[in-house]
Amino acid sequence: MNFLAALKVSSRAIRSNKVRSILTTLGIIIGVAAVISLVSLTQGANRMIEEQLTSLGGKSLFISPGKRGVGVQENAINLTSDDADAIRKLDVVEYVSPMIDAPEQVVWGNRNWFTVVVGTSPDFVFINDWYPDAGVFFNNEDVAKTENVCVLGRTVVSNLFGYRDPVGLTVRIGKDSFRVIGVMGTLGQTSGGRDQDDVALIPYTTFQKRILGTDTLESISVSVGSPGDIPAAESLIKLVLRERHKLDKNEEDNFYIKSQMGVIDRIFAISNIMTVLLGSIASISLVVGGIGIMNIMLVSVGERTKEIGIRMAVGAKGKDIMMQFLIEAVLLSLTGGVIGIAAGVLGSRIGSSFTGWKSVISPESILVSFCFAALIGIFFGIYPARKASKLDPIEALRYE
Amino acid sequence: MGGNVIVTKDIHKVYRLGDTEVHALRGVSIDIKEGEFVSIMGASGSGKSTFMNIIGCLDKPTSGNYYLDGSKVSEMDKDSLADIRNRKIGFVFQSFNLLARTTAAENVELPMIYNGTPSRTRVRLAYDALSKVGLGGREKHYPSQLSGGQQQRVAIARAIVNDPSIILADEPTGNLDTVMSSEIMEIFRSLNDQGKTIIIITHEHDIAENAERTIVFKDGSITDEKSKDGRGVRAARTVET
Questions:
Q1: For burial by CB atoms within 10 Å, which of A305, A329, B171, B212 has the most?
Q2: How large is the ipTM?
Q3: Which of A314, A386, A390 to mutate to test the interface with B (most CBs of B within 10 A)?
Q4: Which DSSP helix (H) or strand (E) runs through B155?
Q5: Which of residues 9-48 of A touch B (CB under 8 A)?
Q6: In Å, how far from its chain's centre is CA A385?
Q7: CA distance linking residue B58 with residue B54, whole number of Å
Q8: What Å distances lie between residue B32 and A23, B2, B39, B159, B235, CA to CA?
Q9: Angle A294-A299-A301 (CA atoms, 0-180°, nearest 5)?
Q10: A393 touches chain B (CB under 8 A)
């Protein structure tokens, strides 16, 4: 019997028992829908966690000179602007900002305020996900031209200017005059109690030229596209810096790289456990649906014993009968699978509108559940189909 | 007439029902020539249906040999037997055994599904077969829309659609009235005239009289065998056990 003829016979059998077929596929529909919607919701939750981590600096790396865990180090080699440029050339790296800071007096008129002056690059805003509230941040041109421009933190502004808008005014930092071009949004305190808004940001080149007098950096902040890229970025940066610093194989690093990797790893491990857990709970309902198919196929084989006998009498081989019933089982489970995928997509939309989580429906999860439904049909269809194919034609014909 | 199309040699069939053994056939040897019209009679339980099942390749003998068209069927596997049923034998049953919810034409197509006949050819041959048994125009009718005699004619169309050389009919008129019975027997006679070997199991003497040769079973053996023209009622060719 060719496949097409078998398909026709099987689909006719399914259609001739509509209510029963629908009830049978319902098990698979619910199973597939549950798998798809739960997996997509947990993946959406993962995506949210990832975003939260990003705002916590989950995508950033911090490179400092010296050896890890050693306090004040003599003859520690300094990081330079060239190191930062070399790191910027790595594909995995998205943003690089050189960092230098020093405590300085900021003066406007007769008021002065003692704050931390930070020299950095425009990438700073993206790495820290911290943007100016008023005015603008300095751009790459300002950096290249070592412009005397600054962006002030809220604390500095309120202490120097009160409620006045400082953008466009000129302040003195150290011995030089700086034009205020922007004010950063409010960040608040760190968990350690440090006021993050108590800062004045200027181009790092200006800092090197006016305040430091050398082209060294204190540290380099780097961010990558997603938290998953952190390990790769870490090892690549290590390679680049070791080469630039001309370190031998047996020499220790003269810099160190910090990241939130440990914490991030653990959070992702937990959310993966949740995905697997919810997915496997949903899969149980898929297996129950499969058992439903097996049950109904066994009933169907019993009911159609006479038909099987007639088919065998006119020349059907065991494998023809087997194919007919197997196709029927797979057809049932695949129909359930397709409807279940649609229901799952709909379900995860509804779920995400209730929870406010994003739902991420990946083509993989649709493909996997489709294949899984087919496999369920084959797995739970084989036993009834084999049973049908092993019937004795004479007894089957005699069956009433 | 050609040579022997069916040859059985000392066929035994033993069923096991729990602890007891039932000896359904006790050494049956018979030759049936190509193109013969044979009727088989006997009380129920005489072994005639068991014998029919073996000839029809639905069952295998416990011992003894069966040759069909010269090949030794008694040693073939299930798939080969299915092939033989498909190509060489057409069955007609007392209860018609048509698939319900399936049109007459599709019922007739059934044997061709299992030998790879392309769909278009299947339809054409099914229509041909139905018109041969006088059911042209009723191809799309379902069995429930047809009378008993018409259903049996659909069954005959199904039996002949693969052009087998042998047609086995197990009490084909058992469920039909006299008029319909004679119509059905008319079809069998004309098929016989076209050269098909026909073997009919029946209870009724007037049905058996259509055949050139009648074989009578009793207790698993052939007890009597006679030709229609009455020329020489031959001694029963039984092999005593």
A1: A329
A2: 0.91
A3: A314
A4: helix B148-160
A5: 9, 12, 16
A6: 44
A7: 6
A8: 54, 10, 11, 19, 16
A9: 90
A10: yes
